[in-house]
Amino acid sequence: MSTAPSSIRTVAIVGGTHGNEFSGIYLEKRYRNQPELMARSSFSCKTLFANPEAHQANKRYLHSDLNRQFKTADLANPLLTNYEQSRAKVINAELGPKGAAKTDFVIDLHNTTSNMGACLILTQPGRIYNLLAGYIRLKMPDAVISRDEDHFAAEDHALLCTVGTYGVIVEVGPQPQSVLRQDVLEQMHEMTQHILDFIELYNTDALPALPKRVEAFRYLHSIKLPLAANGERLGMVHKNIQDRDYQPIEPGAPLFTLFDGTVLNYDGTEVVYPTFINEAAYYDNNLAMSLNDKVWIEVE
After folding, report:
1. Beta strands of 32-152 (E only): which ranges?
2. pLDDT tens across 141-188, in order?
3. What are phi and psi of 273, to 5 degrees?
4. Which burial class, exposed, middle or buried, applies to 269 when counting CB atoms under 10 A from its CB (0-12, 13-18, 19+)?
5. Angle, vertex CA 160, rays to CA 157 and CA 162, nearest 5
6. Residue 125: partners with Cβ closer than 8 Å, 6 or more residues away
7. Angle at alpha carbon of residue 229, lines to 228 and 234, rounded to 5°
8. Computed from CA positions of residues 190, 194, 200, 204, in that sequence, does the dihedral angle turn out positive or negative?
9. What is the pLDDT of the chain when averaged over all its residues?
10. What is the mean pLDDT of residues 275-292?
C-alpha cells in the first residue's frame, strides 16, 4: 500500500470511462484544449480519455464495464485480455500502478440517467476526503456527498479512481445516455473546479473555515427489479419512487408496480434513501436502485 503524500503534486482528470456518458468526455476535451482551466500553482494536472473505443461505438463499453476492472488482482491477471480489461492495464500503467501510484489524485467524471443532481462519491476513507466533503458542501450546498468506502479495501475496489493514491467520482444527472445537457455539463465543470481549488488550498494550508460535519449517504446494497424464476422482468419502479433520489423510503412504502397492477411494498424495517433509481446502464443486471442510509462525515 502506498504512503499518502503530505501534499498533492499530480492530478488526473478522467473522462469517458463509460463511452456514452458525454459530459465527462466533452469536459475532458475542453480541459485538454484549455489547460489553463485546470492549472494551479501547487500541482500538475493532466487529462485522460479512458475508453475512446466505446465512445466511438456509442456504447457504455465494448466487452465489459471498464469501471469494474481495477481490482489489484485483476490488473495483475494476464488472462484478462478483452478490450476493457486490457485498457485498464494501460490506464494503471499510466496513472498508477495501483498501490504505488505516480498520480496523487484522480477525478473520474460520470453521468447518470437518474435524478441525482451533482454528487461527489468518496470511495475511500481518510482525512483529505472529509475535508473535501466539507469544502464541496461550503461551495455547492445543494450537491450530494456519497460514500461507499466501508465496503471494500482499496485493493479490492474495482473503480478506476482507486488507481490513484486518492480518487473521487463526480457523478451528475439526470442525463440520457449519448446526450449532452448544458446544465449537467455546467454542474460537472463547477464541481471539478471546486475539487481543483480544494487541492490547491489543501497544498498551501489555506483552506477556509469548513462545516464541522457534513451530511452524506452511505451505500448499503442494491436491489433488483421484480423477476420471474427464468429472469423475466415482472414489473417496474413505482411511480412514487421514480426521480426521488435521496428521498426517504419508509417501511411499507410502495416500491414496485408489477405489470398486472400489483404493488410491492418495501419490506425493510429501517428508513433508506435510494440512489441510481432506474439507472439505464444497470438494466443489463436488472438493478432497480441502490439503497443508502444517512450518515455524518466529521470534517475534522
Report:
1. 44-49, 105-111, 117-122, 144-147
2. 999 999 976 566 677 889 999 999 999 999 999 999 999 999 999 999
3. -125, 120
4. exposed
5. 50
6. 149, 150
7. 5
8. positive
9. 96
10. 97
Per-residue pLDDT, 16 = 98
Is the Cα torsion angle 240, 244, 247, 251 positive or negative in sign? positive
- For residue 227, list its beta bridge partners: 233
**Beta strands per DSSP E along the chain:** 10-15, 44-49, 105-111, 117-122, 144-147, 166-173, 213-224, 235-237, 254-258, 263-265, 273-275, 287-298
Radius of gyration of the chain measured on its C-alpha atoms? 19
**Region for 295 from its dihedrals, namely left if φ exceeds 0, alpha if ψ lies in -120 to 50, beta otherwise:** beta
Of 120, 256, 279, the C-alpha closest to 192 is 120
Residue 24 CB contacts under 8 Å (≥ 6 apart), including other chains: 14, 15, 16, 17, 108, 109, 110, 111, 170, 188
- Per-residue pLDDT, averaged over 70-88, amounts to 97
Supply the pTM of this predicted model.
Answer: 0.96
Predicted pLDDT at 1: 42
The whole-angstrom separation of Cα 132 and Cα 34 is 25
Task: Name, in order, each residue with C-beta under 8 angstroms of 252's C-beta and a sequence gap of 6 or more.
Answer: 265, 266
Angle at 279 between CA 276 and CA 284, to 5 degrees: 125
Per-residue pLDDT, averaged over 229-257, amounts to 97
Place of cell 412504502: 253
The predicted structure's pLDDT at residue 3: 52
